[in-house]
Amino acid sequence: MDAKDFNMDDADVAWCPGCGDFFILQTLKETLAELEIKPENLVLVSGIGQAGKLPHYIKCNVFNSLHGRSLPPAVAIKAVNPELTVIDISGDGCMYGEGGNHLIHNIRRNPDITNIVHNNMVYGLTKGQASPTSRTEFKTNLQVEGVFLEPFNPIAVAIALKASFVARAYCGDVEETKDILKKAIKHKGYALVDIFQPCVTFNKVNTYQWFKENTYYLEDSHDPYDMEQAFKRSVETDKFPLGIFYMNPDKRTFEENLEVYQEDKTPVYKRKADMDKLERLIASKR
Amino acid sequence: MILVRAIKLAGYYVFSSKEYMSRVRGGLNSTEIRISSKRVTAYVDRIDILLAINEGAIGHLGRRITKDTQIIGDEDQLKSVTGEYNVLKIPVLKSAEELGGIIFANVIAAGVISCMLNIPPAVFDQIIINMFARKGEKIVEKDLQAGRKGYQLGEELMGSKDFKFEIEKDPSVKDELLLSGTEAVGLGCLAGNCKFMASYPMTPSTPLQIFIAENGKDFDVIFEQAEDEIAAINMSIGAFYAGARAMIATSGSGFALMEEAVGLSGMTETPVVIYVGQRPGPAVGLPTRTAQEDLNLTLYSGPGEFVRVIFAPGNFKDAFELSHRAFNLADKYQIPVFILSDQYFAECNYNHPSFDLSNLVVEEHIVETTKDYRRYELTPDGISPRGIPGYGDGLVAIDADEHDEEGHITENLEIRARMVDKRYTKKMKLIKKDIIPPELIGSDDYEILAVGWGSTYGTIKEALNHLGLEEISFLHFKQVYPLHPDTVNYLDTADKTVIFENNASAQFANLIRMETGFEIDEKILKYNGMPFSVEEVTETLKSIRGL
Question: Is the predicted ipTM greater than 0.95, yes or no?
Answer without folding.
Answer: yes
